[in-house]
Amino acid sequence: MTALVRYLLVDVLRTQRWLPPLLVHFAVLGMLYASDAGPPLPAYAGTCVLVYPVSVWLTVVIGTAEDPVRRTVTVVTAGGWARAQAAVTALSVLAALGLALIAALAPVVTQPRPYPPGTVAQGFAALAVCALVGVGVGVLCSRPVITQTGWSVLAATALVALVFLFGRTPPVGNVLWSLSHDDGVTSALTLSGVLAVLFVAGATWLGTAVGPRRG
Amino acid sequence: MVRLDRIGKRYGRGPWVLRDVSLTVERGEVVVLRGGNGSGKSTLLRVAAGVTAPSAGLVRRGASVGYVPERFPTGVKLSARDYLRHLADVRGVPVRWDLVEALGFVGEPTAPMATLSKGNTQKIALAQALHATDLLVLDEPWSGLDAAAAGALTDLVASSEAAVVLTDHHGHDVPGAREVALGAVAQGGVVIELDSVGEAFALISSLEGVSAARAVGGGARVEVRAGFSDGVLAEALRLGCSVRSVRS
Predict the structure, then answer these.
(1) Is the pLDDT of residue A167 over 80?
(2) Which of B63, B68, B78 lies at the smallest CB-CB distance from A11?
């Protein structure tokens, strides 16, 4: 599995398609933290709103770096769709957690306010939950579940927007609300963390089930 | 080894692409699938390789499988060396650059695969699959290869320890291969390619058993119904033509 993840990583790095989402990530973080961003937790809520769609985008980039035919070769070499899908998810989770870590540490370096380790840890946990939900959405919106780029973009946009429309609904809305109001952060994170992990696992399973039917 | 037991395949509610196909290929055995366009050869190969799940029936195969798709994609940014090394790592076996050399690869191993010619890309695609030890699934493996590489591939396929299933439109003969027909197979015609035909073209195209004849440069491409090929060949030679190839 490590070799497979490494192969996907090297391959996606060569495409340079990872650059746009990463640039957006850094640019928006730069804008948010250029001046005083206010109290730490509400500021983290702002970056959660950023990390979620960027994770979706990066996951789609990772999931579609190989074209469909080369993916079939990879699937056969790896020993089945399940392993290939699991590797795509694993790499996407690593990348998304990287985004979350950058977003969690950015204010520590740039902000004049104190960012105690406990707050940073809470911020990272919230960012990680949103990033994981992003991975799940990204897996659902890329091959083999959605095979056409147009539908993929539409579905990803719709799923991202949907989460923000429904206010305090888990797994993202409740985290944003609790961070903004500094109320029940831990319980919101626990619930959403469990949901996010289940969501990512479910999306990966769906890819594994759909791949061989379409393949 | 691969064992296909009464395989059926359809996409969604579409027509059956394959129906009730059974095929067993043991280790060291080579099976060539025959059949016209759209007879389901590629689909059967994808089912055998595990890319596609059959809609009906059972598949059992060994763990180490190699697959060469009909058209390996162009535009791969990885270099040939990196691609092979990573895929060998995924298999957990040492990379065998000797396979690439045996196939006569002449490209730049460290340049992006997108810059390679079709033939050289095909050699890399074949080399990654030939790392497999249980089952080789090759869709039109000779396409794009020159004569030397084609011969080398034939040797590699014939001497492989794995079970081999392949399709081929070019009439390559693998020693000891078993032929399996899929769907309606074109009635055993023979294609004869002739050189220095010249004036004799009209005579040859009117010979008994010739179903189609086409002048190609100074030569001709003659399609002959089964059973008449020897007579047509003898007459062509008598008329002073030179035989370039005979394929069934």
Answers:
(1) no
(2) B78
